Each structure stands twice: as structure tokens, then as C-alpha cells.
Protein 1
Amino acid sequence: MIEQISKFKDSVWIGLAIGLLVPAILSVIVWYIINHVFYLAKADLLYIGAIAINAYSMQYFFKHYKENIGRGILAATFVCAFIFFYYKVF
């Protein structure tokens, strides 16, 4: 796994793509769970868990000296947080 990560070019754009793609996939899974499990019908805060995964992945890339990828993931986390805020307010 580390060999595959070391092949990634240290680019903010790659981090932005990772930071937007991973929460998007997890949000689809959360949406499915919310719409199909009766007890979780009003558990919109599960979407925050999908966004919080970015914190772990950002820390992972920083630990492996891919600072620009980590910065891209951080930027994507802010974008996802603003989208969630918009979803909850409007």
C-alpha cells in the first residue's frame, strides 16, 4: 500500500480529488442507509461521518510526506463542510 501511495505525485489537485471522491462515495452509502433503515430516517448527522474520514486520510498522507495531497484533502473537507451546512440550513 505504501508503495502505491509513494507513486502518487504530490499535488494539491490529487488531494482535492481524493478529498471529494471518498466522502461522495460514503455519502451515497449513508443516503442509502438513511432511506432504508427506519430508525435512522432523521440521522442526517451521519453525513458528518462521511466527511470526517477526510481527517484520517489527510493525517495518513501527511505522515507519508505528501503535504500537498494533504492540503488538497483539507480544502476538500472545507468544501464538503460548506455543502453539509447548506444542506442543513436550506
Protein 2
Amino acid sequence: MAISFFVQGAIFALLVTRIPALQDRYGISDGLLPLFLAAVPILAGVGSVGTEHLVKRMRPGLVLRAVQPVVSVALLAAGSGTTVWQLAAALAVFGLTVGALDASMNMLGVSLQRAYGRSIMLGFHGAYSLGGIAGASLAWVGAHWDLPLPTLYAPLVATLVPVALIAGRWYVDRQGDHPADNQADHQADDHGAAVSMRALLPLCLVMAFAYIGDSTVSNWSAKYLEDVLHSSEQLATVPYNVYMVTTLLGRSFGDFGVRRFGAVAVVRAGALLAGAGFAVVAAAPGPWVGMGGFTLLGLGLCVLVPQTFAAAGRLFPGASDAAVARLNIFNYVGFLIGSPLVGALGGAWNYRAAMLVPMALVLVTIRYARSFTPVPAGYGDGHERPRTVDVG
């Protein structure tokens, strides 16, 4: 499982850190760029919805094995085309399959955490961060040596695709481990285990706010450093790498924090750190202070998403796959809102002020931290609503 998270982190980092290079390659204007950035999360949301229905008939591990190579090839196609329609087609395939990939990967992570009986989701997402570091580092090499995108992408894709396929042989939901392998069990699990969107809503909001913050870093950090803080093109690739490094550090120790202090305390601390990070970025006089802000952002945001998936699995133990798939949609809602919102505010006003919007939304997460309290035993059968849920 950790290998799949690593591969996804590397592929995604190589896409988002080279957005300026993709923009130059295809001659995309600043006004048109947000439309391309918005199309990917919209299609990813469609892919996540489809995965909720697909896993009723086949195991999440099979879905993951099928779509992860396609995501990698779509990245290579995006960097290898010559016309805008080719980029649009590659990003469309990337979006649809990355939605299925994210959903199935987190379904497996949640089910494995339930089997272990302790917090391990932060560790899986830590592997994603490690992959992001590797991808961002390669992006820096590409910018430093002015490598064409196909030259940068092709060796990584050629390496990661077989690695992911081999790792998929050891996924935890092999034959007999998933309800889809036994129709009677599947029907029994569906009975009385429907996902209540009212109960899931606080977690959906936290997921959206976290990804508004994350998408601001992934889609705009390079452009912010280069255009606002006047860094070099090489240095502009560093903030995402710094962000991923601190995300990795936070997630490496985050599971221990959850076991020691509880998910509620960890989520509150993460939201406060992320808010402080956005404030530093908005006020930074130069690129090095700006990177300090992105450091705080990584330490703060890193705990929110894994804990949100884990909380959904606890909330609906009899329908965790459906809960994760629906929650995962708000990953893309966050990206869909965050990228165009920051771009529109930055273009109409200025990018410094635009950074204050995700800051405010991430801080709202503190209001919903009680939703991460462990669910009482027996909840999740569809007949009881946990007292910790606050949707007001």
C-alpha cells in the first residue's frame, strides 16, 4: 500500500510543480490556465463517484491496479503533446483515473487501519509525501537543466508503472477479503449501513477546506514565488518540495500524536499551524521567508486529510468504502474552489491578499474538530447519530 501512495505522490508532484512549463509549452494564457486546473478535479470527482459503484462489483485493489498505470501514462502524454487539445485530452484521462485511484487507495488504507486497530493512515499519506518530494526534486532538476518535459517524465513513468503493478499483488483485499467476493456478505453489509450525508458533512467540510489550502500550495506556490516574491525559476520549484518535506515529517510522527493526544487535539493543532503558515506567506518580504511559511503549512495541513478519511471509516464501519468515496469528492471540491479562487483573487486584486482566504477557511476546521472524536462502539448501523457531530 505504501508504494502506491508513494507513486501517486511522485506523479502528482511532477504535474503541479511543472505547471509553468506546461503553460509555456502549450502557450496557455494566465486567464485560460485556471480552466485547465479546474477541469482535473471536476473529472476526478466523477471518477470517485464511479468508484463507489464500481467497488460493489470488484475489489478496490483491482481498481487501484488498473488505474495507477493509466494515471502515469496520462502524465507523460500531458508533457509530450504539441497542441492544446492534446493537453486537454491527457488531463481529462488523468482527472478521471486519478479520482478512481485516490478513492480506491484510501479505501484500502482505511480497511487496513481497521484491521490493525490503531492509527496508521498518516503513515500511508507520509509515503505519498515522500513520493511528492521525489517528484518535486526531479522537477527541480528539470528546471535547472532546462529539460524538455518528455525527457523529464518518460524515465519516471517507465520505472513507476511496473513498480506499482508488482506492488499491487500484495494489496490487502485479495480474494475473499472484500464483500464483492461474496454476494451474500455484500448484501448483509449493505443492509442498514447506508452513508448518512448529514453525519458525514462535517468531515466533508474539513476535507474541502484542507484541499483548498493544499491546492493553493500545489498550484500556486511556484508562480507565487516567481511572480510575487521575484525568485528564479529554479527556486520557484522549491516551495512545494519544502512543503512535502515538512508534510512527510509531520505524518511520520502524526500517528504517534494521535495515539498519545487523540485525533481532536492533533486536528486542532494542525489547523492553527496551517493558518499561521498562510499568514507568513501573505506577509513574506522575499522568497526565503515565503518558504518558511510553506514549511508551517506542511506541518499543519499534513494531519487533516488522513485523519478525515480515518474518521469516516470509524463513522461508517459497515459502509466505509462508500463513505471514503463520497468524502473523497470533497478533495476535488477543495481543488475546484481553491485553484480558481486564488487565481481570480490574485488577478483581480493581488496574490498576497488571496492567500488570506484559504487561511480563514483552514482555521474554520477548528470548529469541526469534535467530529474526529472516536465513534462510540456500535455506531455505524444506520440507527444512531453520534453526539460529537456538529454541522452548525
